[in-house]
Amino acid sequence: MTIVESRAVTGGVDTHRDTHVAAALDGIGGLLGVESFPTTPAGYRMLLDWLNSFGTVERVGIEGTGSYGAGLARHLQALGLSVIEVNRADRSARRREGKSDPLDAISAARAALSGRATGASKGRDGSVEAIRTLMVTKRSARRDRTSTINQMRALVATAPDDVRARIACHTTLSLVAEAAAMRPRPGEVVDYATRIALRELGRRAEYLAAQIGRIDGMLGPLLLARAPSLLALPGVGPDSAAILLIAAGDHPDRMRSEAAWAHLCGVAPIPASSGKITRRRLNPAGDRQANHALWRIVLTRMSFEPRTRAYVARRTDGGKSKLEIIRCLKRYVAREVYPHLRSSL
User: Which intervals hold domain Transposase IS110-like N-terminal (predicted)?
Assistant: First the structure.
């Protein structure tokens, strides 16, 4: 009797908006084929059928599981396949070997097969993804509202004297309310146009503020259901908790250890020693939004939490600068939030 062993296959995918380019490798890295597929549910099925035609698919390395590859990653994970997040090929390899979609797909497959890429895909199928989509909208609304208010203040600075005297000294909230309530009457052209412009900007700012409020009303229950222990930590507000959850993703396997989480947030110092000099330098990599969230938590704690204030006083007496102390505290906060993130995922 002849026993036929199924060939182990590793896939690699270079993702784009309209098409995905896939490559298939055998167990020793031999190239089995390269093919292109549309970025539709039917295209995802065709891609997997194509990989299965070579043997048993053990893993698939995908570039961009958090963007163009999110749909394909969801499809494969729903079928129980191992999906590995692959970073783009390093520049030195691209200079040597060239750059093309098939080459990028082959590189992704080789990274997954060799173990060079081991990260689990971020996932776009849970409550963290719902939080992320709301935060994207909130962030843009907050940015637009700030820009609108700055435009209002600039207009007030150059407005006719009677308009400037009326609202120049107002606080932000009263400025928006006063401008939105203006009822311009036709008259001198500059005065009339300025009042109309201020009224429209004020109404825009009020609309954006209401939009932010509605989003906060939806975010609150999602965060409380997903990570109540994280929100209970000192200095961790809804925005900071949301950003940290988004950085972690829906899948806990992405964070192999507390040290890996610190590297993901860019708060793990990098060795920078040479000869007799032993030192470490700031890590400029990692998720900068998560890094900013840790910074915001640290500043809040430095203002009111007795434990943090005592630490700051002790390290200041030891000769550390404020910036150095904040860097140390960000690392400590990353360590503190890690188990709460793991338990919430």
Answer: 12-156
Task: Tell me the two tokens of residue 317.
Answer: 């007496």
The DSSP H or E segment spanning 63 is: strand 56-63
Could you read off the pLDDT of 107-135 as tens digits, one per residue?
999 999 988 877 777 666 678 889 999 99
| Residue whose C-alpha is closest to residue 155's, from 199, 189, 209 | 199
Q: Say what percent of the chain tops pLDDT 70.
A: 93
Query: CA neighbours within 13 Å on the CB side: how many for 160?
Result: 14
CA-CA-CA-CA torsion sign (207, 211, 217, 220): negative
Domain 8-114, CATH among 3.30.420.40, 3.40.30.10, 2.70.98.10, 3.40.50.300:
3.30.420.40
**Residue 210 in this model has a pLDDT that exceeds 70:** yes
* Torsion from C-alpha of 35, 36, 39, 45, nearest 10 degrees: -30
Query: Nearest Cα to 308, choosing from 316, 268, 240?
Result: 316
Give the CA distances from residue 188 to residues 180, 193, 194, 219, in Å, rounded to whole numbers and listed in that order.
20, 9, 10, 47
Q: d(Cα 325, Cα 295) in Å, to the nearest integer?
A: 11
pTM of structure: 0.80
In the numeric block, which tokens belong to residue 160?
């006719």
Per the rule left: phi > 0, alpha: psi between -120 and 50, beta: everything else, 266 is left
φ, ψ dihedrals at 23, nearest 5°: -130, 150
Residue type, 143: R
Q: What is the per-residue pLDDT across 296-329, written as a single tens digit (0 to 9) for each? A: 999 999 999 999 999 999 999 998 889 889 999 9
Q: How far apart are CA 133 and CA 140, in angstroms?
A: 11
In this structure, the number of other CB atoms found within 10 A of the CB of residue 187 comes to 9
pLDDT single digits (tens) 42-85: 999 999 999 999 999 999 999 888 889 889 998 998 898 989 88
